[in-house]
Amino acid sequence: MKITAQEEYGLRCLLQLAKVPQGQLVSVKEIAVKEGISSAYAEKLLRFLAKAGLVHSMRGIKGGYLLNRPPAHITLGEVVRALGTMESTDHICSSFTGNGEICVHFSNCGIRSAWSDLTNYIQSFLDHTTLENLLGDEYTVANRLGKQAAGRDVETRLKSQI
């Protein structure tokens, strides 16, 4: 999976909004300074996020942006979809066709299942990880995400036994 600059900085902008109390406005300039990006770029990213319904803007001297929902109700999957695209197995298979229009292994591919499982795992991780999961220092977040992944692994094993 490739993470674009737009996805990285857009997520950082959202985390700046998630760090303040719900309903508190944060100016574009304040976000831009804290993330080391231009105000114009921060504004562009926030417009994409607003179009996706993740943030709301208020105009005026005391205006700014705020989250439309609590950080616990916004997933990384939503963020990635708002700012870019999620790779699919079809995209991967259609990108590597060699000299032909379609892959020589199109009708019987042993690799496709691996890419499919991997993309499904990534999409599941993104759809189950919220902004709230990413709030805190690196150690805290790593622990939180590790426990979350362990819980999903147990859940997957239990489902396979049924």
Task: Give the helices and strands, then pairings.
Layout: H1 5-18, H2 28-35, H3 39-51, E1 55-58, E2 64-67, H4 76-83, H5 89-95, H6 112-128, H7 138-161
Antiparallel strand pairs: 1-2
Helix pairs in contact: 1-2, 1-3, 1-4, 2-3, 4-6
Descriptive notes:
The longest helix is centred in the C-terminal third of the chain and has 24 residues, at 138-161. This protein has seven helices and two strands. Strands 1-2 form a two-stranded antiparallel ribbon. The two termini are 31 Å apart. The chain is mainly alpha-helical and 162 residues long. Strand 1 and strand 2 (64-67) form a beta hairpin. The model has no long low-confidence stretch (mean pLDDT 87).
